[in-house]
Amino acid sequence: MDGKVAVLTKTNHIEVKTLPIPEINDDEMLVKVEGCGICGTDVFEYKSDPFKYIPVNLGHEGTGEIVKMGKNVKTDWTGKPLKVGDKIVCGPALNGDIYGLMGGEEHYFNGWLSNYMVINPNSVVFNVSDMPLDLRILIEPAAVSSHAVAKSKEIYTFKHGSTVVVQGVGPIGLMVIAQMKTLGVRHIIGVDGNKSRLELAKKIGATDVINIEDGDPVEAVKKLTGGKGANFAFQCTGSTKGASTIWNFLTDHGGICEVGFFVDNGEASYNPHFNICMPETKVTGSWAYVPDDWVEATEFLRETKSEGMDMTQLITDSYPLDQMNEAMAKNISGTGVKIVYKNNE
């Protein structure tokens, strides 16, 4: 049996290859891919191969339907039964490997930019058969934001009256805004330079938005907070300029969670005296996720649906497998929000 995989063969170039699907063993599963989001990490690998994985099949925000199961596979990571026909998502393997970022395996059916995926033994799989495709595609980025929120709770207690700034309202920042809303935070400020993304931020929970193209965002935050500044800020841009600015949004005894630097984008500057010591600022960083974050993310997305929050609005563009170069270009352009691959076969 053959399948199709979108292989990154060199920087800025993906080729769709038809290859034999390996036979699964007693501890593996074969999944028919239904869809996968394009992550900023995929784009970094596409543009410059920072992980030195080429040739590689990308895609780690995927979901699909089980079509074959090894006899030893019985349940998902939470103990929920699994059977052929169930819909799954898959977090990191217990050894830390992430599908779509696995260079060096003997086959390419290890990333979600394909029409079939082999799920390795000891993978962190979740049965999400009750969720529609577009919500399932969003579980992985929701796990990223869930981890950021969990790390933030270690240094700050969010209250209904807290004022929270989310700088950078791409997919992760938008997820953070929605999660702040589900926590009951009543004052959420989205900061970005993209007008359409700011409009979406308001639809899913931001009480105010600031377009950096309209003037000094620090002054705008101070104006919205009566001159005091915000209690907490999430830095989701991946921009060194944004990482240098985030400190200035805060009131004394505030907190920051840095979410935006999954890869090395360079150095940012701050003043230890004025930005940390005098205001006694608390700081944490967030790196990817752990399996429990996937459980939290799934419940969060289910909750948004029951509360009438349409998170599927984040998905703005969909491409078939043979248009992955176009999908990457769309992501790079910044003109959409969540760009996805959907299997049309």
TrEMBL record:
Q: Which cofactor does it need?
A: Zn(2+)
Molecular function via GO: oxidoreductase activity; zinc ion binding
Alphabetized InterPro entries for the sequence: ADH-like_C, ADH-like_N, ADH_Zn_CS, GroES-like_sf, NAD(P)-bd_dom_sf, Zn_alcohol_dh
Give all residue intervals belonging to the Alcohol dehydrogenase-like C-terminal domain: 171-301
Q: Residues in domain Alcohol dehydrogenase-like N-terminal?
A: 26-124
Keyword annotations for this protein, in alphabetical order, are: Metal-binding, Oxidoreductase, Zinc
Q: Which residues form a coiled coil?
A: none
Protein family: Belongs to the zinc-containing alcohol dehydrogenase family.
Q: What name has this protein been given in UniProt?
A: Zinc-binding dehydrogenase
